[in-house]
């Protein structure tokens, strides 16, 4: 076997492989002899068919099978010999494939890039520092009460704290527009879910009242044809309801898994959950800064085959996330929608793997168990969760990836400068983009 390797572009390699004609011809002849033993041709007994008939009847088919097998095996030997690390499957085409001539075929493939992670010694990371105050806890308990609240109809004018049930239809320049009509719609007058100014104009309205609500659609409204347009909504108020929050009693506490201990135990449990959320959010914000810097500071080409696979995975996630039908063909979603995200994820994966190898990081049983025990704290039966992850091979592999990812981030943080930034609980748990907008 003769092998030559050519770099055609970036990560693409063109591997030309030659196999002696004798090797192919011998393999074909041997396969034909085996075929002759079981061949059925009219006028001949099985096993007694002359080889000339067998070659004429099966020669092309057998040669095609042999050549296909040889190309596969010789390709593997060639990339091993040349120490190539392929990313994805190759395209293999025979350039010379004739009896009596050396077989020549070309394998076009991509290889993994050589990734060397640059230093992050000059990287500055902001780490939010916050705690759960009694005020934060009280606010959260009120949120939980609101989640379990009921709405009771009242015979009075609506206040900002009330909910109204309305029929409405919207008009622009006297013409009704699509999507601007509904009946029996429940609307909280402090929910902020409708067009700015709509809810405020219903404060003071009573059941049975009809009124015109004048609003202007925002310039960034999702419907292009409505952006910045003045509109009039004809509204009928069907009923007014006030919110009745549940009392802080044992029945309420049981809704959140607190069976005994009363208010003190409930507050302690809620605070523990808030502290857990705070810890995870801070960790996530710090990690996002690290991985973003890692990707931005290390430039290299990524294999197209890996990006393509990642795009397919993102397509499937999108269909599941948005509740597409089970028979929906995810490949119908344009690849361009996911291209940038897929490239970033592939690049990050390669960088993470490079750090794992360079730092000789390992996800041993101790690290895996510690990680999953932390994960299981919020479940009713933590030990059941731990056993499920530790004894399920597929889940265990996911654990290993998560633990190694954490170790990579911790190692990079040890090299970078971490600046602690004091802030309130609310600010700390806000998504990073919201904090950036506020600044």
UniProtKB/TrEMBL annotation:
<keyword id="KW-0963">Cytoplasm</keyword>
<dbReference type="GO" id="GO:0005737">
    <property type="term" value="C:cytoplasm"/>
</dbReference>
<feature type="domain" description="PPIase FKBP-type">
    <location>
        <begin position="161"/>
        <end position="243"/>
    </location>
</feature>
<dbReference type="Pfam" id="PF05697">
    <property type="entry name" value="Trigger_N"/>
</dbReference>
<dbReference type="InterPro" id="IPR008881">
    <property type="entry name" value="Trigger_fac_ribosome-bd_bac"/>
</dbReference>
<dbReference type="GO" id="GO:0044183">
    <property type="term" value="F:protein folding chaperone"/>
</dbReference>
<keyword id="KW-0413">Isomerase</keyword>
<keyword id="KW-0131">Cell cycle</keyword>
<dbReference type="InterPro" id="IPR001179">
    <property type="entry name" value="PPIase_FKBP_dom"/>
</dbReference>
<dbReference type="GO" id="GO:0051301">
    <property type="term" value="P:cell division"/>
</dbReference>
<comment type="similarity">
    <text>Belongs to the FKBP-type PPIase family. Tig subfamily.</text>
</comment>
<dbReference type="InterPro" id="IPR005215">
    <property type="entry name" value="Trig_fac"/>
</dbReference>
<dbReference type="GO" id="GO:0043022">
    <property type="term" value="F:ribosome binding"/>
</dbReference>
<keyword id="KW-0697">Rotamase</keyword>
<dbReference type="Pfam" id="PF00254">
    <property type="entry name" value="FKBP_C"/>
</dbReference>
<dbReference type="GO" id="GO:0003755">
    <property type="term" value="F:peptidyl-prolyl cis-trans isomerase activity"/>
</dbReference>
<dbReference type="Pfam" id="PF05698">
    <property type="entry name" value="Trigger_C"/>
</dbReference>
<dbReference type="GO" id="GO:0015031">
    <property type="term" value="P:protein transport"/>
</dbReference>
<keyword id="KW-0132">Cell division</keyword>
<comment type="function">
    <text>Involved in protein export. Acts as a chaperone by maintaining the newly synthesized protein in an open conformation. Functions as a peptidyl-prolyl cis-trans isomerase.</text>
</comment>
<dbReference type="GO" id="GO:0051083">
    <property type="term" value="P:'de novo' cotranslational protein folding"/>
</dbReference>
<dbReference type="InterPro" id="IPR037041">
    <property type="entry name" value="Trigger_fac_C_sf"/>
</dbReference>
<dbReference type="InterPro" id="IPR027304">
    <property type="entry name" value="Trigger_fact/SurA_dom_sf"/>
</dbReference>
<dbReference type="InterPro" id="IPR036611">
    <property type="entry name" value="Trigger_fac_ribosome-bd_sf"/>
</dbReference>
<protein>
    <recommendedName>
        <fullName>Trigger factor</fullName>
        <ecNumber>5.2.1.8</ecNumber>
    </recommendedName>
</protein>
<keyword id="KW-0143">Chaperone</keyword>
<dbReference type="InterPro" id="IPR008880">
    <property type="entry name" value="Trigger_fac_C"/>
</dbReference>
<dbReference type="GO" id="GO:0043335">
    <property type="term" value="P:protein unfolding"/>
</dbReference>
<dbReference type="InterPro" id="IPR046357">
    <property type="entry name" value="PPIase_dom_sf"/>
</dbReference>
